[in-house]
Amino acid sequence: MHNAFLALHLPIVAALVELDVVDLLMLSGRTADIPTLCKKMLATFSEAGLRRNALMALAHIHALAQDRALESDEVQKVRAFLERLSGDPDAAFTTSA
Question: Using one digit for the tens of pLDDT, what is the confidence trace for 19-31?
Answer without folding.
Answer: 999 999 999 999 9
